Amino acid sequence: MLPRMAPAVPALRFDAVSYRVGDTVALHRLDWVVESGQRWVVLGPNGAGKTSLLRLAGAYDHPTSGTVDVLGCRLGRVDVRALRTRIGMASGSVARMLRPGVTALEIVLAGRHAALETWWHDYTDDDRQRAHALLDAAGFGYTAQRAFGVLSEGERQQVQLARTLMGEPELLLLDEPAAGLDVGGRERLVGRLAALAAEPSTPPTVFVTHHDEEIPSRFTHALLLRAGEVVATGPLGDTLTSEALSDCFGLGLRLREEDGRYTCRAS
């Protein structure tokens, strides 16, 4: 087991990182640092490099050039299987690996060991209480004994979020968790993420999205990507502007903020 990250060590550090997929340059000389306590949103159009960024941050791949440090560990010099147990990741690819007949409670429990099902490990009464508590905290305790396959898309996203928190991760990575949700499901999920962002015990968080409307309140920083390169990065209020979004998406856009939430439309 790897030691837990010291508080002064950045959760993520990318130094001059480039990443190729075949002949395509998905990321080009990217510099990026995520510090303890920060909550980042990563925005960009399709093909911007957001998924590639998360694959590196989640220790599922290595950079073509440059260096990536995750929780103080340099990719290429660490057992990534052990490192991944310290990272909570919610994504569509993970959801597709979850068996439809498994109950929501079992899926959350399995997150204790970054597993897909519970039969590989033993669980204590405290583990079960924590799993129930995580579902209850999101307002989805009623799903505990329901099969994952019969849940709505919004319920599945909440169950998957509870699963990522079950293992008490040191880094939280969320890959478009609101994709496919209706307005009610989106707002419940965004509200839950805002509540988590406000909790000091929540680990550093990276939330990838296409839509400004999905950015929860209490998020602190933004990274805007286009064609694998940084358009803007830094504190959310300074970085998320109409001008930066227009450059990022290649279209004149007007951004509005109200009570910590954003809307965006063509200007």
Protein topology:
Blueprint: E1 12-21, E2 24-34, E3 39-43, H1 50-57, E4 65-70, E5 73-74, H2 80-84, E6 87-90, H3 92-97, H4 104-110, H5 125-137, H6 153-166, E7 171-175, H7 183-197, E8 205-209, E9 221-226, E10 229-235, H8 236-239, H9 242-249, E11 253-258, E12 261-266
Helix pairs in contact: 4-6, 5-6, 6-7
Characteristics of this structure?
267 residues, alpha/beta, six-stranded mixed sheet, four-stranded antiparallel sheet, 9 helices, 12 strands
The portion of residues forming beta strands comes to: 25-35%
Bulk shape: globular
Radius of gyration: 18 Å
User: Can you count the helices?
Assistant: 9
How many strand segments? Answer: 12
Give helix and strand order, one letter per element, not per position.
EEEHEEHEHHHHEHEEEHHEE
The whole-number mean of residue pLDDT values reads: 92
Oligomeric state of this protein? single chain
Amino- and carboxy-terminal Cα gap: 52 Å
Instruction: State the major sheet.
Output: 6 strands, mixed
Structural class: alpha/beta
Question: Within the largest sheet, what's the order of strands?
Answer: 6-7-8-3-9-10
- pLDDT < 50 stretches: none
Helix content bin: 25-40%
